[in-house]
Amino acid sequence: MQNLLNKTEFLTTDVLIIGGGSSGIWAANEIKKNNKEISVTVVDKGPEKWGGLLAMSGGDLDAVIPDESVEDWMRDIVYYWDGLCDQELVERMFTESYQRLKDYEDMGCKFLYDQNGKLKGVPQRGLNSVKLYLAKDKGCGGEHMAQSIRKRAEFSGVKQIGRVLVTDLLEKDNKIIGAVGFHTINGTFYVFQTKAVILACGQTGWKTSYMNNTSTGDWLNMSLRIGAKVKNFEFGRVWNVPKDFAWEGQTTLLPLGAKFVNQDGEDFMKKYSPIVGANTDPHFTTIGMALECRKGHGPIYFDVSNLKFDGNEAILKPNQGWQLLNYNKLCNLGMDFFKTSSEWYPQLTNTFGGLVTDIDGATNIAGLYAAGTCRSFEPGVYIGGLALSITATMGVYAGKAVVRYLEREAEFVPIDENEIEKAKQRLAGYISDTISITPKNVLDLIRAAIFPYDVSIIKNEKSLQKAMEEIQRIKMDVLPNLKANDAHTLLKLMEVTNILTTSELYLTASLLRKESRAGHYREDYPNKDEQGGLSWIILSKTDDVITVETEALPLEKYKYPINGYYSDCFDFSK
How crowded is residue 34: how many other Cβ atoms within 10 Å of its Cβ? Predict the structure, then answer.
């Protein structure tokens, strides 16, 4: 603790990008592509050049290929998201998605083609048009993508800094002028003077298994403190994972015949949805899981006995990289996806909450932009491969927008020393030789409040209110006692403060949305609110008090009418 925050390092950069994953590096490359003279610094709390969650992904990507129709994909998405769709933004993303896929190919990344030379796609969620396109190198596709875009960034002169957590944004007259943070190993205090900041540090979440342990919403508190707004926090992402070891696979396996069964071997999702069955989003299958277990029909198993590979078994069995490590671990535990049924359970991983921005990623704070999954996009039902499309396209949008912004804002604004000291002292207030409670202790308390099935899956007023009371108790009685005696513990502490805010916003928005729509299910409000439901719930904070706004979707200017709701395919009252 002796050196914690005692040393200060000052850095000046035209653009500071917080987050070194897909969207951050895409944004950096786009800035350099448009103006080589702009200095760009990417800072990440992880190792330098690690590639973020992109490096841990399978590398599969959604794209509207030339013989497909953006209009068809849009009709699918408007239907799939129960109308809660920013149509202009999503259409723009789909229109440019194939170019991003080709960009990856130009950088040496490989996708799977069939014998006719056509990209091999896997239909998603029982929809007519939407598909993910498979990376050829199963297990290393995302890692190859991360390496490719990083190399381009290095060649372009992008500065990359690892092991630094940014904790505060500095603004003057509602305009970004800098940021501060600390090195998570040696404790050096960092001050960045900048003209613009791009937040590209992923979704908010609860540090669960697999690759979700790094998505802790590091952008959240520092954005709220300077007046930024967020939305979509009522939508939590509940995933299906094997009981003994977290893994993925359902995105490609369910369309090929895999299914979830209860202890009696019943394909229970056919009961809740004869139309779609198990080939759907985990939001719906986990509701079915919870109901089956509540009725005494648990545990739940993942049944792969009827898989139909159509001669392409090898593409789904990882043969290299981190996915091979995970696959072998499962096999060592006696679970082979392709030979045995394994017990699975729901796991709340993160929220779909994100910053409110314009179509280019600009927030309500001048010079502050969001890219990738920390900007609001999806209403809680996911499509395999969409994240890689979002991060690439949204990174490009933010990069272009920042270049245009810097054409207007050419000068650095001096940073008030008092503001730097205020941010430093806020961090110093968490430092102590005496540790009575750890970040892990607090995280366990938060999870115990948020993870029960009637808070995270089948929500109801009573359970949400009870969880909110516990979160407020943790905030008032426990959090003030949380201290750190080294830089690594301070990192974990700051993550937990963001997770606590995530939980507060998640419960607030979940209580406010008194309907069931897209990825939000209220057992006490199982129907849609046709009058007020097609609105975003927008949250902000002033003096730690949450302010609520609603914003109706501008349906009158949207191109695609709402002709049905995907969630109507399910009847959970049975």
Answer: 14
pLDDT over threshold 90, residue 36: yes
* DSSP label of 213: G
- Give the list of residues 6+ apart from residue 214 with CB closer than 8 angstroms, or none: 45, 46, 52, 53, 202, 207
Tell me what pLDDT residue 254 has. 83
Q: Which of 329-343, 448-462, 467-481 has the lowest mean pLDDT?
A: 329-343
Question: Rounded CA gap, 323 and 332, in Å?
Answer: 14
In tens, the pLDDT along 430-440 reads 999 999 999 99
pLDDT digits (tens, 9 = 90+) for 249-260: 566 778 888 899
> How far apart, in whole angstroms, are the C-alpha atoms of residue 81 and residue 319?
35
Count helices and strands in the chain by DSSP H and E runs:
15, 18
**Distance between CA atoms of 520 and 535, rounded to whole angstroms?**
13
β strands within 200-267, DSSP E: 230-231, 236-242, 259-261
Neighbouring C-beta atoms of residue 563, cutoff 10 Å: 9
pLDDT at 483: 97
**Nearest-angstrom CA–CA distance, 63 and 266:** 35
Q: In Å, how far are 65, 85, 176, 317, 549 from 538, measured between CA atoms?
A: 34, 15, 22, 42, 5
Are residues 532 and 514 in contact, defined by beta-carbon separation less than 8 angstroms? no
Instruction: Judge whether 78 and 549 are in contact, CB under 8 Å.
Output: no
Q: Is the pLDDT of residue 125 over 60?
A: yes
For residue 433, which phi and psi values (nearest 5 degrees)?
-75, -25
pLDDT tens string 186-198 = 999 999 999 999 9
Peptide bond into 299 cis (omega under 30): yes
CA atoms in the 13 A half-sphere facing the CB of 210? 24
CA dist., res. 356 & res. 549, Å (int): 12
CA angle 315, 318, 319 (to 5 degrees): 105
> Whole-angstrom Cα distance, residue 403 to residue 267?
53
The predicted model scores a pTM of 0.96
Q: Could you tell me if 233 and 508 are in contact, meaning their C-beta atoms sit under 8 angstroms apart?
A: yes
Length of the chain, in residues: 574
Chain centroid offset of residue 203 CA: 3
Instruction: Enter the tokens of residue 56.
Output: 């841990």
8 A C-beta contact, residue 180 and residue 168: yes
Secondary structure of 134-193 in the HEC alphabet?
CECCCCCHHHHHHHHHHHHHHHHCCEEECCEEEEEEEEECCEEEEEEEEECCCCCEEEEE
Rounded average pLDDT over 277-296: 95
* Token pair of 247 as six digits: 């893994």
What average pLDDT does range 119-126 have in this prediction?
90
What does the alpha-carbon distance between residue 501 and residue 162 come to, in Å, rounded to a whole number?
25
pLDDT in tens, 513-537: 999 999 999 999 999 998 888 999 9
Looking at per-residue pLDDT, the higher value among 21 and 258 belongs to 21
